[in-house]
Design a protein that fits this description.
This protein is of the alpha+beta class and 619 residues long. It has 14 helices and twelve strands. It has helices spanning 2-23, 26-65, 68-78, 82-90, 125-137, 177-227, 243-306, 316-322, 331-362, 374-388, 410-426, 467-472, 494-504, 529-532; strands at residues 93-99, 105-108, 143-146, 153-163, 166-175, 370-373, 394-398, 405-408, 434-444, 449-460, 508-513, 519-526. The longest helix is centred in the middle third of the chain and has 64 residues, at 243-306. It is rod-shaped. It starts with a helix and ends in an 87-residue tail after the last helix.
Length: 619
C-alpha cells in the first residue's frame, strides 16, 4: 500500500504539472523558456570561467607544493633544522607533523603569524585535524582547507615520512586567500552582469514575443467575429513563406470554403422553402382549376336528375297541358346542359394537357430538333390573330439581319408564339394595337451570353404591369386577376409553358413593362448553323415577308407562305396552337419571368425595371 500511495502521489504531481502547462499562455511559455535557457547558459559560462581562472591561479601553488626541494626542506624542518624552518617561514609556507595516531604539531608558521597562538594569517589546528585522515590516505594530492581568520584559504599537500621511528605525514601548506578572493570577485561580477542581462532580455523577449504573436491575436479576433456571424471576415495576409503567413493563407482558404458552403446551404434551404411554397400553391391552384369544371359538370348532372330527365315525345302534349307542374327537361334544355358539360370538360382537358406538357418538360424529354424559319411562324401567328380580332391593328415588322433560322420543334414554337399572341389579345382592351417584331441579336446580353440569336418581340400597348406582377408572371398558375374569372383569363399556365418550351430549346424568355406603358414579351433562340453563313439581309425575293415589288420596297401582302403565313406588316393572328388549341396564358397581365428568373428586377419605382430604353429593361 505504501508503494501504491507513493506512485499515486507522483502521478498526481505530474498531473498538476500538466494542468499548469495547459493553463499557461503561449506567451508566458515562450518568455519563460527563453529566460530559462539564458540563465542556464550564463550559469554554465560563469562556472566554466571561474573554474578556468581557479585552475590558472592555483596551478603554480600546486606545482610549488609538489616540488621535491620544498618537500625536502619540510622534512628537514620537521627534523628540527632551524635554517630550513626559517627559509620556509619566510617564503610563507606552513609545515605540520601529523604522527599516525597522534596530535598534529605545528613545525613552521608563516612569518606574519604568531606561532602557536592561532592568531593572524595562519592555518588553524582544527582544519589540520579535520584534513589529517584524507592527507594520510592521499599523499601527494593538494587540497584546500579554511584558514585563520575566516575566509582565508590554504593549499596543503601531505607527504608520508618517518621521524624517530614514528610514521606520520608531513603537511606543507601555502596561503591562497588572494586567489579565492579574486575568484569570488569574478563570480560576483558575473552574477550581477547575468542578472542585468536576464532582466533586459526578459523585457526584449516579451516585446519580441508580443510582436510576433500579434498575428495570432488577429486570427483569434477574426475567429471571434466569424463565430458572431461575420463570415466575410478574413485573416490579414502575410508573407506565405513564414509560418504565420502560411497559416493565415490556409485559414483564409478554409474560411472562403466555409462561407461558400454556408451560403450554399442557406440558398439551398431558401430554394427548398420556395419550392415547397410553390408546390403548395401549385397543388392549391391545380385543385381549384380542376374543381371548377368538375363542380359545373356535377351541378348539371344533379340538375338533370332533379328535373326528372328528358320528357318523351308522346308526353309532350301532356307536359304542355300540365304547364308549370311539369318537371321534365325538353330536348332544348338537354342540349344546353350537354353543351355546358362539354365546354367544362374541354376546359378541364386543356388544363390537364398543359399540366402534362409542363411535366414532360420538367422531365427534360427531348424535343424535335430541325431548322425552323421563325419569320414564317411569326407571319402565321399574325395572320391568325387578325382573323380572330379583325378590329385590332396587328402589325409584323422585320428588322435587317441574318436569316431567322433556328433549330427547334416547329410545333412547340408555334405554340409559344400562339400563347404570346393569345396573351396580348386576352389581357389588353379591345382595339389595343399589337406589334410583332422579328430581328437578330444576341441570346442574353444581360447574362453576358453573346451567342447569335433570332429574336421575336410581341408588344402590346395595354395597361402594363406592376413590378410584382412582372416578377411573377411566368410562374405556373399565376394570374394578376386573383378572382380567377373566366371572362378575363384562363388557368395561368400559358406563359409558364412559353418559358419552359423556349428553355427546352436553348432559348431565353424575358419581358419589359411598366404600368401604363404596355408590355413587350421577347423570346430569343440560337440561330441555326445555316443562318450563321448569311450575315447580310435575305434577298427580298426569297423573304416571305417582303413585297413582290423590289423597286418600291412596299411590304405588300406576300400572300401566304407555304406555312400559310401572311406578308410582312400585313400579317396578323394569334398563331394557332398546333398542339390542339389556341395559345393561352391567362396569367393576368402578361407575365414576367417567374420562379426565380435571374433577370427579374425588383425596383419599386412603379416600373418593372428602368434603363436607357423608355420601356424598361428585359426581365
Amino acid at each position: 500500500m505504501t508503494a501504491q500511495g507513493a506512485n499515486s502521489r507522483t502521478a498526481q504531481r505530474w498531473q498538476a504539472v500538466r494542468q499548469l502547462s495547459s493553463r499557461t499562455s503561449l506567451r508566458t511559455k515562450l518568455v519563460t523558456s527563453v529566460l530559462a535557457l539564458v540563465i542556464f547558459a550564463l550559469a554554465a559560462m560563469g562556472i566554466a570561467g571561474a573554474s578556468l581562472l581557479r585552475g590558472y591561479l592555483i596551478g603554480p601553488t600546486d606545482n610549488a607544493l609538489k616540488n621535491i626541494g620544498i618537500q625536502q626542506l619540510a622534512l628537514g624542518a620537521v627534523s628540527g633544522d632551524p635554517h630550513e624552518q626559517g627559509q620556509l617561514a619566510s617564503n610563507g609556507y606552513t609545515v605540520w607533523w601529523l604522527p599516525d595516531g597522534g596530535a598534529p604539531q605545528a613545525v613552521v608558521q608563516p612569518s606574519s603569524a604568531l606561532a602557536g597562538t592561532g592568531q593572524g594569517n595562519s592555518l588553524p589546528t582544527q582544519s589540520v585535524t579535520a584534513i589529517q585522515p584524507w592527507l594520510s590516505a592521499n599523499p601527494g594530492t593538494p587540497t584546500t582547507v579554511p584558514g585563520q581568520p575566516a575566509g582565508d584559504r590554504w593549499r596543503v599537500i601531505g607527504t608520508n615520512a618517518s621521524l624517530n621511528g614514528t610514521n606520520g605525514t608531513v603537511l606543507i601548506g601555502s596561503d591562497v586567500s588572494s586567489v579565492y578572493s579574486t575568484i569570488g570577485q569574478l563570480v560576483g561580477v558575473d552574477l550581477i552582469v547575468s542578472v542585468v542581462i536576464v532582466f533586459v532580455l526578459a523585457i526584449i523577449a516579451f516585446a519580441v514575443v508580443q510582436a510576433n504573436l500579434r498575428p495570432l491575436v488577429k486570427i483569434e479576433e477574426t475567429a471571434g467575429e466569424i463565430a458572431a456571424g461575420h463570415l466575410n471576415r478574413r485573416v490579414p495576409e502575410r508573407d506565405p513563406r513564414t509560418e504565420i503567413g502560411s497559416l493565415g493563407q490556409s485559414l483564409n482558404t478554409m474560411l472562403s470554403q466555409i462561407e461558400t458552403a454556408f451560403h450554399a446551404r442557406e440558398e439551398s434551404e431558401a430554394a427548398a422553402h420556395q419550392s415547397e411554397e410553390r408546390m403548395r400553391r401549385f397543388i392549391a391552384d391545380a385543385s381549384h382549376e380542376l374543381r371548377t369544371p368538375l363542380t359545373a359538370i356535377r351541378g348539371f348532372a344533379e340538375y338533370y336528375r332533379q328535373r326528372g330527365g328528358l320528357v318523351r315525345r308522346w308526353d309532350r302534349d301532356r307536359t304542355a297541358e300540365a304547364g308549370a307542374a311539369a318537371t321534365g327537361l325538353t330536348p332544348d334544355d338537354l342540349d344546353r346542359i350537354m353543351q355546358r358539360v362539354e365546354k367544362e370538360a374541354a376546359r378541364m382537358g386543356l388544363l390537364v394537357e398543359d399540366l402534362l406538357l409542363l411535366a414532360r418538360l420538367d422531365q427534360q424529354r427531348p424535343l424535335a430538333r430541325r431548322p425552323v424559319d421563325l419569320l414564317v411562324l411569326a407571319a402565321d401567328a399574325v395572320h391568325d390573330a387578325r382573323l380572330l380580332a379583325p378590329a385590332r391593328t396587328i402589325e409584323l415588322s422585320v428588322q435587317p439581319g441574318a436569316a431567322f433560322l433556328v433549330v427547334g420543334d416547329e410545333t412547340r414554337l408555334r405554340q409559344v408564339i400562339g400563347n404570346l399572341m393569345s396573351n396580348a389579345l386576352t389581357h389588353t382592351p379591345d382595339g389595343t394595337p399589337i406589334e410583332v417584331t422579328v430581328s437578330s441579336g444576341t441570346l442574353d446580353p444581360q447574362a453576358d451570353d453573346h451567342t447569335p440569336a433570332a429574336i421575336l418581340d410581341v408588344t402590346d400597348h395595354g395597361p402594363g404591369m406592376t413590378p410584382e406582377q412582372a416578377h411573377r408572371a411566368f410562374e405556373r398558375f399565376y394570374r394578376a386577376d386573383q378572382a380567377r374569372t373566366r371572362t378575363t383569363g384562363g388557368s395561368g399556365l400559358g406563359l409558364a409553358i412559353v418559358r419552359a418550351l423556349v428553355a427546352a430549346q436553348g432559348g431565353v424568355t424575358s419581358v419589359r413593362t411598366a404600368v401604363g406603358e404596355g408590355a413587350t414579351f421577347r423570346i430569343a433562340l440560337p440561330l441555326a448553323p445555316e443562318a450563321l453563313g448569311h450575315p447580310d439581309d435575305c434577298d427580298p425575293a426569297d423573304d416571305p415577308e417582303t413585297g413582290d415589288d423590289p423597286e418600291t420596297g412596299d411590304a405588300s401582302d406576300p400572300g401566304m407562305s407555304d406555312a400559310g403565313g401572311p406578308g410582312a406588316r400585313d400579317a396578323g393572328g394569334p398563331g394557332a396552337r398546333d398542339a390542339g388549341r389556341p395559345g393561352m396564358n391567362d396569367a393576368g397581365r402578361p407575365g414576367m419571368s417567374g420562379e426565380g428568373d435571374p433577370r427579374v428586377s425588383d425596383e419599386a419605382d412603379g416600373t418593372a425595371a428602368t434603363d436607357e430604353q423608355p420601356h424598361g429593361v428585359w426581365h
